[in-house]
Every structure is written in C-alpha cells, then in structure tokens.
Amino acid sequence: MNPEKALSRLTAKTGGLDVNVRSTDNTSLSGSDIAYALGGLNQFESNLILYKYAQADDSLYARLLPDWYERVRVACLREGWGKHRKIPDNRLVLLAQATLDEFVGDSLCRKCNGIGSVRTLDKIEVCRTCEGNRIQAWSSARRARSCAMDSHNFRKLWKTRYRSTLGRLINIEQYALSEVKRRLG
Q: pLDDT averaged over consecutive 10-residue blocks of the chain (185 residues)?
C-alpha cells in the first residue's frame, strides 16, 4: 500500500479519511486505520504529514511553525552556525518559515512529474532536479527573498543552511511515511 496515496485521501475538515474516495488498488482505509498509522509518530511528525497531505488549514500551520522554529534553533546551536556571530532570532524564524513553506508547496517537479525518479536508458535513477523529494525546488533567488536577504549573501552564507534545514523536513517526512507504511502493512 502506498502511504502517500492513502494520506492524500485525508480530508482537511475532519482530519479523517474521505470515505467516498477509493484508491486505485481497491483498498479501503477507515479513519481508525489512519489514526492507527499516525499513532506511531510524535505530534510534530503527525501534524507535518497531516498538513502536507490533507491540505489542512492555517491553524495547523500555526501549531507547526513554533515547533519547527525550535528544532531549527537547536540545530543551529548544535552545528555551530552562530559560532562567530550570533544569528538573530528573526533570521531563524524566516528560515524556519521559508523551509516549511517550500516543503509543503504543491508544485511538483517538472522533470520527474512528481515521482521522484527518472528512467534513463538502462535503469531508474533518483531525479537530480528534486533530489527525489518530488517537489519543484524554489530558486535560490526565491529562497533568498523568503529569508529577507539579498541573493549574494544568501548564496554565500545561507544556501547550505537552508538546504540542510529543508533536508531535515524531508528526512522527517521519509521516516513518517515509512512508519505509516509499516503500520498499515
């Protein structure tokens, strides 16, 4: 069973499964199935998956952002990003907000059509454009604007930090989806 397809059938209003929609493989999931599948995740992971796949409202985003900011702040300290000069909190808030917005964005990668892999002459490889995460990456200029920085300083100081932070979200999603898949059998 594909957990992404199952989770895409969640409704934003109820947080439950839309019982009128059937998957292409003729499987049916009840709301209790989804609750059980998400039960193995912590609150942040569960909310992140619901927000991305159920297109939930802004109230869930408002709960996600402070928790994500705190995770970014801790990572910043752990990785020594502000070793020479303290990074202002507003910069970290913008980084957290921008990466979360890009992560839940709805524009699929144009190269792989949102699949995450491309077929070459003799094998299937991870899409190099989206790095397998299926989402059309924002341009460096758009990322800089979302962090309220000019493109030069963004590329010089923040590009790797941004990619690292976005990568954390992608890793959380991959873990959460594998957990959902394991629990749904």
A: 58 39 47 71 85 75 91 88 76 92 81 84 86 81 93 91 91 85 77
Structure tokens at 97: 């907000």
**For the chain, percent helix, then strand, then coil, each to nearest 5?**
55, 5, 40
SS3 112: coil
Residue 104 has which token pair?
């839940």
H or E stretch covering 2: none
The answer to whether residues 28 and 167 touch, using CB atoms and an 8 Å cutoff, is no
- Side-chain half-sphere of 173: how many Cα atoms within 13 Å? 21
Q: Specify which residues 117 forms β-bridges with.
A: 126
- The Cα-based distances of 177 to 6, 114, 166 in angstroms read 10, 16, 17
